[in-house]
Queue: 2 jobs
Job 1
Amino acid sequence: MNESAILCRGLTKFYGRTRGIEALDLEVRRGEVFGYLGPNGAGKTTTIRLLLDLIRPTSGEASILGRDCRAESPGARQAVGYQPGEFNLYENLTGAQLMTYIASLRSDVDTATLRAYANRLGVILDRPIGTLSHGNKQKLALLQAFAPRPELLILDEPTNGLDPLVRQVFHEMVREVRDEGRTVFLSSHDLSEVEKTCDRIATVKDGRLVAIEDVAELRARSLRLVRLDCAHEPSAEPFAPLEGVDRIEIAGRSLHCRVRGPLGPVLNAAAPFEVIDVISRKPSLEEFFLSLYGREVADHVE
Ligand SMILES: Nc1ncnc2c1ncn2[C@@H]1O[C@H](COP(=O)(O)OP(=O)(O)O)[C@@H](O)[C@H]1O
Ligand SMILES: [Mg+2]
């Protein structure tokens, strides 16, 4: 049982002349939470649909839990909980009817588990699914994916449309799955979101894999844009020798810099100038991509 959770080799899908995803090589290990990060149109949904055999590849191959996604599709699907990005099925059923239906379809779903997830997510049970908001449909989509306790969860932008409290519940649910040694593959266009939940991240753009990163390593060398507002006009001298600090600029009583790694040494060096406020932000997804490509990230916190 030590085969990969997901394995893609040269996986390629073109829609006519439009590139969905091209030459994707990817391995997701069993037991990890793997983020598939990229802006809209990057090819995330295309990849996920290929894995679930909902669309057919132009070339290349993929397997789930050691089973070929095409040749052994039913067996592969059986072990997977899937949350589609757009949950447009069963529009006339209520949430409660959907739960009954799911329980009757799959012998591996018990009603108590369904109810527990429905409570935690705050699922609306008494109205037709077609009348629900995107966020409320999303909760049902998550419910039906998680409730069978599948070996592998494949989630397409799972936190889209969820309010912050439900996002927290979702993060807990993902952690529980990992604690049980099961695997989660989730797509997102939000870097800070995947950093919170994932062990590793693959970034994709324009149908191509850009990089695969370990989240712990990413954090250790993560770049921050920092602004210190001081009581006295700071000078650059104490900051220049600090490791991982560059782009130091003084503007009145504010000091701007870029910091790779921990902020502690910067704050210590700033003590003589009496720091009033610290503003620090991580690069946006777009800036993150630029840094992966080796280009510069914007210098300033506005
Ligand atoms: N059914 C389709 N027909 C034609 N082009 C498509 C279809 N689905 C996706 N695409 C195109 O494939 C590319 C990747 O889309 P998609 O996989 O949906 O990206 P993502 O999920 O990352 O936003 C986009 O350029 C998109 O317009
Ligand atoms: Mg998508």
Job 2
Amino acid sequence: MQENQDTIFTDIPELQWVESRKDGTFREIKSYVLRSSYLRTFQIEAIRKYYGVFGLPFQEKKLNFTDVFGNDKPVVIEIGFGMGTSTERIAKDRDEYNYLGIEVFLSGFSKLLDRVGKEDLKNVRLMRFDAVQVLNSMIPDGSIAGFHIFFPDPWPKKKQQKRRLIQFPFAEILTRKLKKGGYIYCVTDWEEYAYQMLDVFSQVSDLSNPYQGFAPPRTWRPTTKFEQKGLAQKNPINEIWVEKI
Ligand SMILES: C[S@@+](CC[C@H](N)C(=O)[O-])C[C@H]1O[C@@H](n2cnc3c(N)ncnc32)[C@H](O)[C@@H]1O
């Protein structure tokens, strides 16, 4: 059975939300296009069962991570986790960190929520919201150990490129949220975007690139669906790792 998100979760506004201009309001440029998701029964059940435990609603208030996770482990934020396969693997293998995964795509969000709930991954919390707004409103400056941004939408057409996530103003926000020594780890199969990332990060004064150019792959990063698609098209996979000084 499949259900449309518009007709369920009337009690959880951030899960019902579908981007719309029906009310005529101005919509700023977003790094994603939001559509209704058709959810399978296990995804609906996952939300009903686990959202209250592992989900975080959007709020105009800074988070206290000690309260959120119940411990003081360093926090890594993953932006745009897609179906969440890397998130789940990394959270299990590197459990010395807490992970806040942010994704707007409800189907992927609820799929990962199902895994996190069933496996009781206590070091993971998930948000279904625009990461840009989450960072600005909810994340204290100097609080984050690392950012993972794996295969962000490349927006390849010239006139769409303004939607790309990694641009100077956003790179500055990421940097402000990092602790000293914290890292930003991006991977892309879109070569021209990879060079844009290197360039953008090189313009942020508090960031340094220990590799000068692209970084060697981290052995702990699993291959994702988007990576497989890129590899099938013989696209180069480029890794970017920069640190806050
Ligand atoms: C190309 S997919 C990659 C997914 C996953 N990281 C992977 O490697 O398979 C990019 C994802 O980023 C999400 N996304 C884009 N902009 C976002 C934003 N501002 N906030 C949260 N998620 C976003 C999209 O919904 C999409 O699922």
